[in-house]
UniProtKB/TrEMBL annotation:
Source organism of the structure: Shinella lacus
Protein name: DNA recombination protein RmuC homolog
Gene name linked to the record: rmuC
Chain's role: Involved in DNA recombination.
InterPro entries in UniProt: DNA_recombination_RmuC
Membrane spanning residue stretches: 20-38
Length: 397
């Protein structure tokens, strides 16, 4: 095989010679053979070098493969031990995790059962509350039906007023639906002290215009409803003044009962003209709390009147009490005199007993002797079975 570089050089050489004669062709063939031989030898030398290099590389590769196999074996051994340790660690962790999961699941199950029990209790409470709400809704619907009807609404306001008056006033101090001389029947009349005319309370409140005003209508409709409410209030105040304020028969002031604190506050806040007109007509607009306070004041006045009416009875009882106290004082003084005399007698008795005690002690301290002769004239003798005893007695006060 001719080297391509040699072929290129030969072609270039022939081109430079400028001809293709036989001698030149022979020379070229000889040169070509020489160069082919040289090229073949070079190629063989390269092949041998390449084979040596290949063997060296193969030996290096085998060595590297051997080292690699040793390393792979060591790594396999290491990986095997690590895998065993890893498996043990994973198994232990899985066991612990399983145990914790079991405990957690048990606790979660217990907590779930407890929460379900509490939820059932709360649901029972909610059911009860819902039942109460339903009954309350029925009551609200009934109340709405009452308030939508003028007659039943008046009965509702009158019922609240009657409850407040009956709770605060004693029986006989008030009267419901009492007829006046002009034939009208006010909702309540309260007896005043000192023979004064009764106080009239009216419980009829115009609520149609108020409901129309509080229904959340547009501003123009609300303004019209407010004007209608103002006219209704003024008309009702005028009717109370004309029907219930009778000179000499009733008080010159009457109460207009409003059965709601919020309505009472709104009237005083937004309808000052209505309040002033009521004051000029001597009509007092009262809420449930103000009516209760007023009734309690009237109760105190009636109680004071009853106290004044019973003052002479109390005075007579006090006089009889003083007489009894005087007699008790005399009897105590007499008893004290008796106790004083008895004390003196007791003192005298104590003196006598002390003397007797002293004399007895002296008798106990005396000496007894047996005598054979004649006793002295100042001594008293006493005969005994054993002999004659000598006894000397000294008289002392």
């Amino acid at each position: 095989m001719i080297d391509p570089a040699f072929d290129t050089m030969l072609t270039s050489f022939l081109a430079r010679l400028g001809g293709t004669g036989p001698a030149l062709v022979l020379l070229a063939a000889v040169l070509l053979a020489v160069f082919g031989l040289i090229s073949a030898r070079r190629s063989q030398a390269r092949q041998r070098e390449a084979a040596v290099m290949a063997e060296l590389r193969f030996a290096e590769l085998m060595k590297a493969q051997t080292e690699m196999q040793g390393r792979v074996a060591a790594m396999a051994e290491v990986f095997g031990s690590k895998q065993s340790e890893t498996n043990q660690a994973i198994n232990s962790r899985l066991d612990g995790l399983t145990q914790r999961l079991g405990q957690s699941i048990s606790e979660q199950t217990r907590s779930t059962h407890e929460n379900l029990r509490r939820l059932q209790e709360r649901l029972a409470v909610i059911d009860t509350a819902q039942t109460n709400i339903q009954s309350l809704a029925k009551d609200v619907v009934g109340l709405q039906a009452i308030l939508s009807n003028k007659q039943t609404r008046g009965a509702f306001g009158q019922s609240r007023m009657e409850t407040i008056v009956a709770d605060a006033m004693p029986h006989g101090a008030y009267q419901f639906q009492a007829q006046l001389s002009n034939g009208v029947r006010p909702d309540c009349t309260i007896r005043m002290p000192n023979g004064q005319p009764p106080l009239v309370i009216d419980a009829k409140f115009p609520l149609e215009a108020w409901n129309a005003m509080a229904d959340g209508r547009p501003p123009e409709a609300a303004k019209v409803a407010a004007q209608q409410f103002r006219r209704d209030m003024e008309t009702h105040i005028r009717d109370i003044a004309e029907k219930y304020l009778l000179p000499g028969e009733t008080q010159d002031t009457a109460f207009l009962f409003v059965p709601s604190e919020s309505i009472f506050a709104s009237i005083h806040e937004n309808f000052e003209g209505v309040v002033q007109r009521a004051h000029r007509a001597r009509i007092v607009i009262v809420s449930p709390s103000l009516l209760m306070l007023s009734v309690q004041v009237l109760q105190a006045l009636l109680k004071d009147q009853r106290m004044r009416e019973q003052a002479h009875v109390i005075q007579g009882e006090v006089v009889r009490l003083m007489d009894d106290l005087t007699r008790l004082d005399d009897r105590v003084r007499k008893l004290h005199g008796h106790f004083t005399s008895a004390q003196k007698d007791v003192d005298l008795i104590l003196t006598s007993t002390e003397k007797l005690a002293r004399r007895g002690a002296r008798i106990g301290d005396m000496e007894f002797e047996a005598v054979s002769g004649v006793s002295p004239p100042a001594e008293k003798t006493v005969e005994s079975r054993t002999g004659q005893l000598r006894l000397r007695v000294v008289d002392e006060d």
